[in-house]
Structures are given as C-alpha cells and as structure tokens.
Specification:
heterodimer, A: mainly beta, B: mainly beta, six-stranded mixed beta sheet, five-stranded antiparallel beta sheet, 56% strand, globular
C-alpha cells in the first residue's frame, strides 16, 4: 500500500460526458501528479500540482483540467469524453520541492471506460 | 521532449534465470528510478539512484546509475514467478518514463 488513494476504482460512462477522478496523496506529500496509461502505452504525464499550485504540464488535453485543494487532495476533471479517453488514470505523490520530482508513489489507479 | 529508450520491450525467461534490462537517454538525468507494475495496479517504486556510478540493491534486484548519467540498468537474479510484470525506468528531473519491459517467467 503506497498510501495514495484514488476513487473511484472503475468508471464507465458515455461519450460526451464529464467525470471527476479523485486522489488523496500520502500524508505529508505536497506534490500530486496525474498520469494516463492507455493499453500497451507507457505512463503519459498529464499535470503536476505542488501545494495547491500548478507546477508542470505534460500532454494534457484542453478538455482535461485538474486542481489541488487546501487539504492537498486533487481532482482530475475529464470533459466531452471520447472513446480514446478510455485508459487507466494514475495519481502519484511525492514530498517534492517545487523543482524535484523524484520518488513518486502511485495510487491504485482509476480505470475509465468510455462507451 | 526528453525520451527514454527502454529495452528489451518484452522478455520470456525460465524461473531461476537472471534478467537484465536497461534504459538509455540522450539527456542527462539527476535521478534514475525503477518501478514495477502488476496488472491492474499502480507502479511500485523498486529502486532509486541519485549519483552517477551508484550501484544499489534491493533483495534480488540490483540497479546502477550510469557514469554518463544517460543510462541505467536493472538486474533481477534467480527470477521467480512473482517477478512477472512490467518494469519501468524513469529519469528525473522532470520525471520521464520509459515504455516498459514486460517480463514473463515460465515456471
């Protein structure tokens, strides 16, 4: 158990819909990262938050957004969903300074299926 | 952007054999990390390397941070069935993941 929690574990929805994925980091970790993993693909970095502020952006679509709340939990919002958005979405956390991003600890993931 | 080349993409080995996989990059990294991912689970950190030339072990796993800071390898000795999974290398900073090595162990 990494100490990172993600809900829900599974999510099935239809094209065009909007969903919210939730992540709670390990106790004491200030950085939260979101990744997308499609079938046979590696981990694609989406976005990082550090202590409530956006710190780095990866290949995140404009239809996707995220935020980190004062209690440090984070939410990833996916809107206007398309079939190709079906994937595993992972959250990771680290103690992390604003610059260093090593030793990330991953949650169990949310499997999103768009029908 | 920065990319990591991880090889091999997949390997099938007999139980008890040693395994070696590596990761190379055109960029210098300050940290190398190795993760293992079981099916349907999140990646789990196996080993973290912070200094060029560093050799670190974690049980049957040994990893090294290349002298040039552009590569790293992971060795698994005397493989067992529970070693099955996908092994990812990652370089930092920022954290970039390789595409993974899928390991299958034949009992």
């Amino acid at each position: 158990d990494s100490g990172v929690t993600q809900t829900p574990k599974h999510l099935i929805t239809a094209t065009g819909q909007r969903v919210t994925l939730r992540c709670s980091p390990r106790s004491g970790d200030l950085s939260v990262y979101w990744y997308q993993q499609s079938l046979d693909q590696g981990l694609q970095f989406l976005i990082q938050y550090y202590n409530g502020e956006e710190r780095a952006k990866g290949n995140i679509l404009e239809r996707f957004s995220a935020q980190q709340f004062p209690d440090l939990h984070s939410e990833l919002n996916l809107s206007s969903l398309e079939l190709g958005d079906s994937a595993l979405y992972f959250c990771a956390s680290s103690v992390g300074s604003p610059i260093e991003s090593h030793e990330q600890f991953f949650g169990p993931g949310t499997r999103l299926t768009v029908l | 952007g920065q990319q990591l080349n991880q090889s091999p993409q997949s390997m099938f080995i007999q139980e008890g054999e040693d395994v070696s996989m590596n990761c190379t990059s055109s960029s210098i990294f300050n940290t190398w990390l190795w993760y293992k991912q079981d099916p349907g689970e999140g990646p789990v950190l196996l080993i973290a390397l912070y200094k060029a030339g560093e050799l670190t072990s974690n049980g049957r796993l040994t990893a090294q941070f290349g002298i040039t800071r552009k590569d790293s390898f992971l060795n698994i000795s005397a493989s067992i069935p529970s070693d099955v999974g996908i092994y990812f290398c990652a370089g930092s900073t920022p954290l970039v993941f390789g595409k993974g090595t899928r390991l299958s162990v034949i009992a």
